[in-house]
UniProtKB/TrEMBL annotation:
Domain Thioredoxin: 95-236
The species this protein was found in: Dyella halodurans
Name of the molecule in the record: TlpA family protein disulfide reductase
Signal peptide interval: 1-23
Keyword match Flavoprotein: no
């Protein structure tokens, strides 16, 4: 009778270990996804700190290095996005033209909950702001004027602040855009750290253009012209293959 090769034995043991490890990772991932309460057919994307898509195994390895993660989801659409964060370090903004905007569900100042799907079907201009941001305050008249002239678009402003702070900002500044508040998780997932940041989404919910810390000229007419040119530039640009 021939003896089994020791090498073959090690190979079989390694295969069994890999199978066991994969099964454990699958159970862990299923448990994580279940905690997100996304329904029967969930779609979850994992991003590293730079915003690059990674698999669950790589995601858990990074968590094992002492990192945390931000998460944002749309339970109605059954979708979520999780991004690695390093405590004490702001995430770098990494969403570019053609990227899918993260799923979200946020409370609206006007009442109810808004989701990414609420803004599909039209181009959508998003302004990220906070109440004491001087450039954010300065751009309010321009954003308001642009919205009045473009009834064919969606407009929404998002802040990490609470409803009372957002309401005071809207009232004192005459800002009539729909406002979503409590958006810190979405802001962390995107990596927004400079204000104001403007993002233009195409009708399918993908990023069409981004202006981080957009500089608008002092003259009101020129400010509006600058914003119009920026929007038109990305609306007419060659579509990005997906």
């Amino acid at each position: 009778m021939r003896r089994a090769s020791p090498l073959l034995g090690w190979m079989l043991l390694a295969a069994l270990c890999n199978t066991s490890l994969h099964a454990a990772q699958t159970r862990d991932e299923q448990s994580l996804i279940a905690s997100l309460q996304l329904g029967a057919s969930p779609t979850v994307r994992y991003l590293d700190q730079a915003g690059v898509s990674i698999n669950y195994a790589a995601f858990t390895r990074l968590l094992g290095d002492g990192k945390t993660f931000s998460s944002t989801k749309d339970s109605q659409a059954g979708a979520a996005m999780l991004r690695i964060q390093t405590p004490g370090q702001p995430a770098r903004f990494a969403f570019k033209r053609g990227d899918a905007f993260p799923p979200f569900e946020l409370p609206a100042l006007q009442g109810g909950t808004q989701r990414l799907g609420s803004y599909q079907g039209r181009y959508t201009l998003i302004s990220f702001f906070f109440a004491d941001c001087a450039p954010c305050i300065a751009e309010v008249p321009t954003l308001s004027a642009f919205a009045r002239q473009h009834g064919d678009m969606n407009f929404v402003a998002i802040t990490y602040e609470d409803a009372d702070t957002a309401r005071r900002f809207a009232g004192s500044r005459g800002f009539a855009w729909p406002i979503l508040h409590g958006g810190q998780a979405l802001i962390d997932t995107l990596g927004v750290s400079t204000y104001p940041t403007l993002m233009l989404l195409d009708p399918s919910g993908h990023v069409a253009g981004v202006a981080i810390g957009m500089s608008l000229r002092d003259d009101e007419a020129k400010r509006l012209a600058d914003l119009n040119r920026w929007i038109e530039r990305w609306q007419t640009a060659t579509p990005v293959p997906r």
